[in-house]
Write a structure and sequence with these properties.
The complex is a heterodimer of chains A (631) and B (255). Chain A has 26 helices and 21 strands. Chain A is of the alpha+beta class and 631 residues long. Chain A is globular and about 95 Å long. The N and C termini of chain A lie far apart (65 Å). Helices cover 39% and strands 14% of the residues of chain B. Chain B is built from 10 helices and 8 strands. In chain B, the strands form 2 sheets. Chain B has a 5-stranded mixed β-sheet. In chain B, strands 1-2 form a two-stranded antiparallel sheet. Classes of the chains: A alpha+beta (631), B alpha/beta (255). Strand 1 of chain A pairs antiparallel with strand 5 of chain B, so a sheet runs across the interface.
Chain lengths: 631, 255
């Protein structure tokens, strides 16, 4: 009679990745197991010793260490370890010690390797598991996604058509008709002559002329056909690297409301990508909604359009967009609502008596907006602002926009961080004074509510003021240790929901379900960490991924940490997005929570890993910015 | 350590006129003399081979010993009345238990009661097709040969085997064992507080599952001879670790 031990088979079968093995294979494998008992605190694997088996924890718990002696992981019943050593060179890479009395099932290396060979899914688990689940998942996403893999140079139709600035609009119209293009690139001087080879220019063009320019700036104005292009061309050229991805070009167009972007490669123009190229490439995208928003004539119409915001996100997720793309698109849409509401307000109230800049704060400024979001905004007023004379106008303007946003689904901010709050309508000098106060006399409690102001971006009006303010903030914050320490303390307040054994610590949510809040306990604290590093490094970027790029340049973070944090943010954001999309599709209200029970084992593992990255990043923060152990 | 019954105090009883058998629950005082004596007796070849095995000498330490844990399921508690229903064994040493070399037999028996069916989940039809104990015992002896036998409660395994061999082959089959139950109660007695001793508080349970619990070993659901042999092997590994027995000569654990 065969010596099968049902107890062991049942245990092994209940754990990943063994659950994917056929029953007979599982029984054979279990028959090969060797069992070892380890008393608490005894060493199970020593660094460098040869390893002959994959270890599965039957009972107890163990600690896995890096070679440096730093704790790497804690594992409990049902977890495996030792695979790295077997797969790499047959020697222990991560020493392991029993944390509690532990019973270990050892699966001989050869049995393990044969199974990896024979069952792809089984083998993948270990590859993925060891080399970072997150990275793999993120890579897969990118690989599957057309918008992120197709580069803008690949969708343009032809070489650029160019003219000199002294050419007439007549010549220009003829050339465009002959060449069947909707734009020409304009060079200023004869010295900037395009080279002979393939029409590639040797200097950056000074302007661009499009169909629309000929219509609105020449014909509508009644200018003569001899008018030189110099007089009518658009000069502040917005260009895109020809290696950029299609979605980046799309986002540039959205942000600057242009329809043509010259492609630049090594300071030469290699082509022009037009909106129609992108629309042809991506027939369904957020551009259409933005155009829809900008053409609505009343607040009611905007409100009627607002449900489409969720469907854009659903569609983007279906198209495998990554969180950066979705976050940016949702932010661009949110900005469009603000911009249109401001236009409608100005139509109703008349033009502003003094200039202003409308600010987006928080996730919209970072271009990381998702579905469930309240409005966080503010206003910079001209230095000429006079409360008695202009106060009423800007109050009405702000109320109009904030009420409109609320009606469109961007609910009022609980903390009152809105332009409709007179406290947050200030002149640039007023803002600078406010930020100086926050930075020079850091009070953690005050900063708790103020951190949102450190992500800001101009939406409409004098957006240059927003940039000036950002530069002011960064210069002030950069070397201010007490301020950074106060921010660090705040950033450490929200810990990831992981218990001692990396199990999830769930909370009862509004719907009485036990769930994790992915925003409050995940992305938000991670964003805090990134913001802090960015401020310390004097980065002007607002987006967390851009900030991470700046941080990486500065070598502030240890090697590899940047990717780890970026992957974790991407992963947490994607889980949030998927939860929201699932809720939308089920006709429920989207929120930021997830019930771990509803996730697959793989997702749960990824989530745990992401939370672990957050936890480590927070520890690093403590070490880097807070002074002394009491910090 | 438990005290051995002396073979000289209670003399071997004569059964038939062939061989002197040790009485029930009596083991030799001097194992070496006993092995020597037995290997000269007329008995089946597999038993002779068993006795000719090199038993652990005075120097052999626990950490250098090859063990085999064995467990039987029976129709009752009385080795002279009841039958063996199944046998499970698993070889191991201080650091590894080798499931690949584990063995398990269901024994043909006529005395299977309905109560033991419930305990062992072995049914009459399983047993009807099974090999006889007569054919299994030589295989068991072969597995134990040259190894240190480990049991949990020696009055079961060793006594049932003694009776079975005596009945079927008219020979003595006795061997020194390491008894995890004995080790456990010895340890518990030693660790017991003075107060507990004065109050004559009963020792905690030394039943296999209870003993295992104290070492945080998992509870096994499916009760059978092989699982219990494995459970016994794991328990000894745990006892060796916790009671610091690995450097001791294995003979000091004999009973």
């Amino acid at each position: 009679m065969s010596a099968e031990i049902q107890d062991i088979i049942a245990f092994v079968r209940a754990h990943e990745p063994f659950d994917c093995l056929p029953e007979s294979e599982l029984a054979t494998m279990c028959g090969q197991i060797e069992v070892s008992y380890f008393q608490a605190q005894s060493q199970i694997l020593h660094f460098g010793e040869s390893i002959d088996s994959l270890c599965l924890i039957r009972s107890g718990s163990v600690e896995v260490f890096r070679r440096t002696g730093e704790l790497y992981n804690r594992l409990e019943s049902g977890h495996v370890f030792g695979q790295m050593g077997i797969l790499m060179n047959g020697h222990v890479r991560y020493p392991v010690r029993a944390l509690e009395d532990s019973l270990i099932y050892r699966i001989p290396s050869q049995v393990f390797l044969d199974l990896c060979e024979q069952y792809g899914e089984f083998g993948d688990y270990f590859e993925v598991n060891e080399h970072s689940t997150l990275q793999q998942v993120v890579l897969n996403q990118v690989a599957d996604n057309d918008m992120t893999t197709v580069r803008v140079r690949d969708i343009i139709q032809r070489d650029p058509v160019y003219l000199y600035a002294d050419a007439s609009v007549h010549e220009c119209a003829k050339e465009m008709t002959e060449q069947r293009v909707s734009s020409v690139v304009v060079f200023d001087h004869a010295t900037d002559q395009p080279s002979e080879e393939a029409g590639v220019s040797v200097a950056l063009p000074s302007g661009i002329v499009t169909d629309r320019d000929l219509r609105s700036r020449v014909l509508a104005e009644g200018l003569p056909l001899s008018t030189p292009l110099r007089d009518i061309m658009s000069v502040d050229l917005i260009t895109v690297e020809h290696d950029a991805y299609v979605y980046e070009a799309m986002l540039l167009m959205l942000r600057h409301n242009v329809h043509h972007l010259p492609l630049v490669h090594r300071h030469k123009v290699t082509g022009v990508v037009s909106l129609s190229d992108i629309v042809r490439h991506e027939s369904q995208n957020s551009l259409l909604l933005v155009r829809g928003i900008m053409s609505q004539e009343t607040v009611e119409d905007l409100v009627a359009l607002s449900p489409q915001v969720a469907s854009v996100m659903v569609r983007m997720l279906k198209e495998d967009a990554n969180s950066h793309m979705i976050g940016t698109a949702m932010s661009v849409i949110g900005r469009a609502f603000k911009q249109r509401l401001l236009q409608l307000a100005e139509m109703a109230l008349g033009p502003p008596p003094v200039p202003y800049c409308f600010l987006a704060l928080g996730s919209m400024a970072r271009e990381e907006q998702l579905l469930v979001t309240d409005q966080d905004n503010a206003m910079i007023l001209s230095a000429d602002y006079n409360e008695a004379k202009h106060g009423h106008y800007f109050k009405s303007l702000a109320d109009f926009v904030c009420d409109g946003l609320h009606a469109c689904g961007y609910t009022y901010c609980d903390g009152g961080i809105m332009a409709s709050n007179p406290q947050w309508r200030m002149t640039l000098e007023g803002w600078k004074a406010q930020f100086s106060l926050w930075i020079e006399k850091p009070d953690p409690q005050a900063l708790l509510n103020a951190s949102i102001f450190f992500d800001l971006s101009g939406v409409a009006g004098k957006t240059a003021w927003a940039e000036q303010l950002t530069r002011f903030i960064v210069n002030k914050a950069k070397s201010n240790r007490p301020f950074l320490a106060a921010l660090a303390r705040n950033a450490l307040n929200r810990t990831p929901p992981l218990g001692f054994f990396k199990n999830f610590v769930v909370e009862k949510d509004g719907r009485q379900r036990y769930s994790l809040n992915l925003k409050r306990r995940g992305t938000a604290p991670l964003v805090d960490v990134i913001r802090l590093h960015a401020l310390a490094e004097g980065s002007l970027a607002q987006n967390s991924f851009d900030r991470l790029d700046d941080i990486a340049q500065s070598k502030l973070l240890p090697e590899g940490k940047r990717d780890e944090i970026s992957d974790a943010l991407e992963y947490l954001s994607m889980i949030r997005i998927r939860q929201q999309v699932a809720a939308v599709e089920a006709g429920e209200t989207a929120d930021n929570t997830v019930e771990p029970e509803t996730l697959s084992q793989k997702e749960r593992r990824g989530l745990k890993e992401a939370f672990q990255v957050l936890s480590n990043a927070q520890k690093f923060l403590r070490y880097r910015y807070t002074a002394g152990p009491t910090g | 350590m438990p005290k051995n019954f002396s073979a000289t105090v209670i003399p071997p009883v004569q059964r038939g006129n062939v061989v002197s058998l040790y009485p029930y629950q009596v083991v030799p005082d001097q194992w070496d003399d006993f092995f020597c004596e037995q290997s000269q007796q007329d008995m089946p070849e597999f038993l002779k081979t068993f006795y000719r095995q090199p038993f652990a000498d005075d120097q052999q330490r626990v950490n250098a010993t090859e063990f085999v844990a064995i467990d039987i399921e029976t129709t009752g508690m009385d080795a002279q009345q009841d039958d063996i229903v199944s046998i499970g064994l698993v070889p191991f040493n201080m650091s590894r238990i080798f499931l690949a070399r584990a063995q398990y037999w269901v024994v043909r028996s006529r005395r299977l009661t309905s109560s033991s069916v419930v305990v062992h989940r072995i049914t009459h039809s399983d047993v009807a097709d099974a090999p006889s104990l007569r054919s299994i015992l030589p295989k068991v002896a072969e597995q134990l040969q040259g190894k240190q036998v480990v049991v949990h409660y020696r009055y079961m395994e060793r006594e049932f085997f003694r009776s079975a061999i005596a009945g079927l082959f008219g020979a003595n089959w006795l061997f020194p064992v390491v008894d995890t139950l004995e080790l456990e109660s010895h340890y518990l007695r030693r660790e017991r507080s003075l107060l507990a001793k004065w109050l004559q508080k009963p020792l905690p349970s030394v039943r296999l599952p209870n003993a295992r619990e104290r070492y945080h070993l998992p509870a096994y659901e499916n009760h059978n001879a092989l699982v219990d042999a494995l459970a016994t092997a794991e328990l000894l590994q745990a006892q060796i670790a916790k009671q610091h027995l690995s450097e001791l000569p294995v003979r000091t654990l004999w009973c």
